[in-house]
């Protein structure tokens, strides 16, 4: 029977995902069979497992930190906001329903049964489960319906560590307030709290000592360490969960890449690999001067393709993209961005608003129709274009639309479906694909950059970095950082390890 430990926080962005990821790698390095778990995640950053199930990216990375293949059991409930106060609800990796918050809570009994079944499965399979909470565990208006914070820990009878973010200010008040609210309104939850950790501290730790001692006296909780603010931290909060850069970061280089920051952008970690390339300048912008000076413009995925496409047209950004193309820019679309590049987008089931049909940007000879069935699968791909090197490219699909027409870019094998078909389209200096993760393929990414180096009279460069190797090293760096600053001896003793 496995042991368990929960990390919860005083609020959003306290660092829960980061800490669970680091601890997963710490225990995995020690040879312990450890698994991550988050009962319910709300994020537009998702990952597709080998069986086609969809989970939050954070839990996928935590699985990788644990030297495991990502599985649906690590995140049994995923909420993907769609707008209008509704979210897609994915249960065990598959689309269950689209619900408002009020309707979602009406389903809590069924959802909680699923969570319990998964916890029973995990505790029998792994030596240690590391649970992650969401937001604050002391939202007193939601305590009776909250199934992601301390309720799973109570079910497993495992200790809970409370993480406080000092960078926002008021860390002692937030830790004490969380404890007191739980003590008053859910004493059985407060009883599960074992200790606290202060995160993102800048300065002299000695200045905190008196406050920590008083907090220990007031709460009877253990102090398990202070994590300094880490400028070069290669992992950030849930919806900015990005290893090598932040969505609005700007890095100078010879080749300029501009990504359109759609209002409903999803899976923007697709572009993380470019942050590893020293010769690439990256920005997220709609500004005309940025787009007209770009070598590469990428239209990313969107949670509502028609809404974002309509907004582009209303703002005249479609015309700016055409100007950039005429000036020699390469235009790329990923998933929803790929759909936008085609001739027509059809919406017969009203899945993307009330519009039944909308003209695309017209760059590619494809038409897309949105269907209720959602395609989620990992893929292996072979390039059909000489400018796209690679026999064993990897990526994954998450989409409802099906595109037809001149699909001439990749031959793909869908792992979850066991079928081979064509994906992607290219016409002139414009191309697109449904494959998320396509830029993790090092040879393809370098070939793209080198095309523009050669156009500028610069020499082509060899592949210098492996994306997945860098990810693995980043995960180990997180573990080293946490081991240095936390009382790991006390945590190990708590777990009996």
**Parts with pLDDT < 50 across at least 5 consecutive residues:** none
CATH architecture of the largest domain: 3-Layer(aba) Sandwich
Strand arrangement in the largest pleated sheet: 2-9-1-10-11-12
What is the end-to-end distance?
Answer: 14 Å
Counted by DSSP, the helix tally is 15
What's the rounded overall pLDDT mean? 94
The largest pleated sheet is described as: 6 strands, parallel
The gyration radius over C-alpha positions equals 23 Å
- Which CATH top level class of the largest domain fits? Alpha Beta
- The coarse silhouette is globular
CATH topology of the largest domain: Rossmann fold
Number of self-contained structural domains: 2
Which percent range describes the beta-strand content?
25-35%
Assign the structural class, choosing from mainly alpha, mainly beta, alpha/beta, alpha+beta, or little secondary structure.
Answer: alpha/beta
- Into which percent range does the helicity of residues fall? 25-40%
Total beta strands: 26
Written description of the protein model:
This protein is of the alpha/beta class. The protein has two domains: 257 residues, P-loop containing nucleotide triphosphate hydrolases (Rossmann fold, 3-Layer(aba) Sandwich); 203 residues, 3-Layer(aba) Sandwich (Rossmann fold), CATH 3.40.50.880. Helices cover 31% and strands 29% of the residues. The chain has 15 helices and 26 strands. It has a six-stranded parallel β-sheet, with helices on both faces. Helix 1 crosses helix 14 and helix 6 packs parallel to helix 8. The longest helix is centred in the C-terminal third of the chain and has 19 residues. The radius of gyration is 23 Å and the shape is globular. The model has no long low-confidence stretch (mean pLDDT 94). Pfam families: CbiA, GATase_3. GO terms for molecular function: ABC-type vitamin B12 transporter activity; catalytic activity. Belongs to the CobB/CobQ family. CobQ subfamily.
